[in-house]
Amino acid sequence: MLHVDYLSRNPINEVEEPEEVAFVGNVAHQVTKFGLTFIYNYYGPIMSIQTGDHMKGLYQSPCGKWKSNDKTALDLVLRKLREETDLVVVPERAKWVGIDKFYNYAIYAIKLGDGEVFQWMEVDKNSLWGIISWKQYVNYARMRQIIPTYSTHLNQLLEAAER
Question: For residue 20, what pLDDT is reported?
Answer without folding.
Answer: 55
